[in-house]
Fold Quinone-reactive Ni/Fe-hydrogenase small chain.
Amino acid sequence: MNEATLQKVKERIEALKKLPGMGEKSVSKMLEDSGFTRRDFLKWSAAMAAMLSLPTSFTPLIAEAAEVSDRLPVIWLNMAECTGCSESLIRSDAPTIDNLIFNYINLQYHDTIMAAAGWQAEENLKEGMEKFKGRYILCVEGGIPTNMDGQYLTMGPHAETGLELLTRAANDAAAVISVGTCSSFGGIQAAAPNPTGAKGVYQVINKPVINVPGCPPSAKNIVGTILYVILFGALPAVDNFNRPKFAYGLRIHDLCERRGHFDAGEFVEQFGDAGAENGFCLYKVGCKGPYTFNNCSRERFNQHTSWPVQAGHGCIGCSEPDFWDSMAPYEEPLANKKYDSPLADATADSYGVTILTVAGVAIAAHAALSAIKNPKE
Ligand code: SF4
Ligand code: SF4
């Protein structure tokens, strides 16, 4: 990161500071009221800079970007989904700084949490889209039904289809972010036989889309992506599935605390056995960590306290395209079953598919060998 980029980011934040804020109080005051000190906030900013793969010199700028996050208008549309992504952000009994910053952003429209309904809701959306034309960030939660011209999902008093509303809202957005696996790749709605023809946002609009998949995605990945857009006014570098590399650049397996046991050929054979008590690797009881690109093993959940593999269940690959079909059965190893996703072919992820296929074969061989080598098995 050179000096010129740093200067540009500073100028961008100064320009955002001049815009009217929507928050009733400053971020510092809001955090203080929730029991977080200035030191906690700076520690969070340093951790966020590290997560975004930025140098430590960015720490104060991350704090400033969070302070001006209420200047950035966000329109949030809910399509075919369970609202789990929103719920995971807003229904926390002990909110993290990520949750609080999400609450602070300038949410112009959000189907689930706004008070308005019916005509009033439509009016709010229209007003937000007109007032912030070309400047708002569009966040989309949920898959987009496309069969029967999208009529499997209609919304509002004019029965507009989700597909129509999304196309209209995306046209005037400064950036489009798919929040969760459903809006990224279709999710459970797109599971076979996919009667509604559900698809990911990037498959139905002609605009760059950044995918933040997960079922649900972590608050850190959502807030990190939004902060990146605030800092740089651009989308972050992405992988072949349009996922930000800072969050989805490594496999779960790469930083898993059970990895030493995988390498040593020490596996849980069934839930509740001695291997489980000893914290052995969960591959044989279905962990899909070797096939899954996400940062759960590094960032964890619930204030960094734990994550599914630490709690004793394997990763189910929720941030991968078609995980619902491709990663099942969840409590059995994929072994050398080919990772078979039409999206993988469509996006020409030959690198990832090769790695996954080779990894699958190698892992199967490794697991089989361990069964012979370990006398207890
Ligand atoms: S297979 Fe799963 S439990 Fe085992 S090391 Fe990899 S991610 Fe961890
Ligand atoms: S550990 Fe795997 S299944 Fe669990 S949230 Fe992370 S990517 Fe999804």
Summary: The first helix runs from residue 3 to 17. Residues 252-253, 256, 258-259, 262, 281-283, 287, 289-290, 309, 314-315 surround iron/sulfur cluster (ligand 1) (CB under 6 Å). The domain at 3-244 is CATH 3.40.50.700 (Rossmann fold).
